[in-house]
Amino acid sequence: MSATFVGMPAFPTAARGALADTQLRHNLAHATSTIRAKRAAVVGEVEEWEELRLAGAAVKEAALRDLDTHLVRLEESLTARGATVHWARDAAEANEIVARVARDHGADEVVKVKSMATQEIGLNEALAEHGIAAWETDLAELIVQLGDDLPSHILVPAIHRNRAEVREIFLRAMGDVGRPAPADLTDEPAVLAGAAREHLREKFLRAKVAVSGANFAVAETGTLVVVESEGNGRMCLTLPEVLVSVVGIEKVVPTFADLDPLLRLLPRSSTGERMNPYTSTWTGVTPGDGPQEVHVVLLDNGRTRALADDVGRQALRCIRCSACLNACPVYERTGGHAYGSVYPGPIGAILNPLMKGTGRPGIEGEQTDSLPYASSLCGACFEVCPVRIDIPEVLVHLRSKVVDGHRGDTVPKAEAVAMKAAAWSFGDSRRLGWVEKASGVAGRVLTRFGRTTLPGGRSAAGRIAGPGASAWTGARDLPAPPAESFRAWWRRTDGGRGEEGSS
Amino acid sequence: MTSARDEILGRVRSALAGVDRTAPEASAPRIAPVPDLVGHFADRVEHYRAVVERCTPADLEATVAAALARHLPDGSGRVVVPAGLSFEVPGAVVDGADGPGLSALELDAVDAVVTEAAVGVAETGTIVLDHGPGQGRRAITLVPDRHVCVVRAEQVVPDVPDALERLDAARPMTWISGPSATSDIELDRVEGVHGPRTLHVVVVDHA
Ligand code: SF4
């Protein structure tokens, strides 16, 4: 595939140009405000929304506070239903398990449902090292992949492509990796979606092994749940003979009935629908229906570190709806790339430091430490969060941990005290500037950390996934994390308005 | 060497040392009853741009035949039905009638599928298949491009918690809320990407 766009300069010049493009900025703002309005409408029609949020938070909190019990129970239920349960301490262990299953079946390709967990562990790149191709299967991902392109926005990653461009990309590139687009392809979105349907169907019909995540895992019954929109999830979960699901240990819920508040909260918060088009559940192996070999990989990879943090533990309640991203004024400006992680936005600003730890030496640690400052503490994220994660509270807590971690540095005492106060706001550039210095060159090492190179030679930070129906489950290429702290990026570019080439 | 399992469980236990293991109780609220539950269900399904029709039990077979004729106008379309369907669909192939059922490739050559359902959720306009008799394996309602789905009035429940109470977690399930959809091209909503692009729901009223 070529990195040269029709009528556009080659990457990364094109990406810089695109980011500075006022039309694109307009599109992005339009996208977030459209989704915010949809969410507000369907949330508004639920009179008991606040009670529902409390119930959702309670379900996840109950699971987390007794997590060992529920994990053991989940393992028992799954095993009793014919599934094979694996445990993975970290990304490498999880990737190795998935690769082994694929190799055991002689597979040189797998089809994938969008999943944050597999993005987090860099599964596609790890599989590629084993000579196994991982086909992501949602439409936006296909457009970005075939266009040899970078996503412009986590929610609508192909928003920078108009329909005529999508047509060009499909006509030019589909034939290189599978079934070509029909020669008479028009630029009607329905026709373009139809071409994607045909192109991917060939892969679905022949795939032996599928890889998924899960939105929820029910301890009591061993039931896994995937929430999605396009039906590519159903294809992956139904047609292949072998299914491997990588599931973060925080996805567990105690009982089948506990799915209730969550299945009501998630689609309304995520895509602003009463219910997403498709939700699939499966409980181990069902003879004669769907995959006859089912694996579940229970992934830690820093989750137990977050669990040990009394204030931060609540972040593990996250159901990846992305409402906090859409509500966040900082995120709306930056579009996600500046967070340098598969988990961007307000939740990313707390989840990354919680899972990776604060105060670690080295540039990667400094990049992580800068994230709790990527917020104005305005509180919009908490208000929309369906499981009531008090993100501002955790941000303040993490800021103080960052300060503690740097106490041996040149920190003035008064400054440290100030940083512990909730009033310590993003708007104070002098104090933020200090953090930026504490963070130093933040992030430069990340470009070498578990990253890959995209066709066209630029580096990519693995993929990012959006939850089934939402932005969070999308599996998308991200540019490598910026070689500067979030704050430095913000100042240099005036919050992205003066963007002239970051990352 | 400690196994990954033991190490992760050990990390969880030490993370939770001293933590109160009981979370605050908060039961999920139920919505207020609506006067016309079945009508509400039909409205909500239609909202997703599915085709919705209501009929009497006596008219069911004719209504399904008309639905198929509407979506396959030249009369040559291939139709598959699951074993155990409680009504006749003339000319349809019964999946698994002899042998293991149609392969995915064979299903790809089928134009439409007719099934029943397990539950209808009024508030969200959702149809739940639990893939029992009359519904068939998951693949038969996934690969063909048109799905005619029959939901009976007595299967309609008010909301999600009522549906979960009726369903058996041990069965695989597919919750369907309208045809599949994407807004990935210019934020233009397109119905139907990988699942059936046409969803035609026949609601059978109380006898
Ligand atoms: S933290 Fe954000 S993504 Fe997670 S559940 Fe809350 S609003 Fe949704």
TrEMBL record, chain A:
Annotated stretches, region: Disordered: 471-503
Keywords: 4Fe-4S, Electron transport, Iron, Iron-sulfur, Metal-binding, Repeat, Transport
4Fe-4S ferredoxin-type domain ranges (all copies): 315-389
Name this polypeptide is given: Lactate utilization protein
Gene3D superfamilies hit by this protein: Alpha-helical ferredoxin, NagB/RpiA/CoA transferase-like
Compositional bias segments (type: Basic and acidic residues): 491-503
LUD domain boundaries: 73-299
Organism (species): Nocardioides deserti
Annotated Pfam families: Fer4_8, LUD_dom
Highest rank taxon of the organism: Bacteria
TrEMBL record, chain B:
InterPro entries membership: FTHF_cligase-like_sf, LUD_dom, NagB/RpiA_transferase-like
Annotated ranges, domain LUD: 107-204
Coiled coil stretches, renumbered: none
PANTHER family reported in the protein's UniProt record: LACTATE UTILIZATION PROTEIN C
UniProt protein name: Lactate utilization protein C
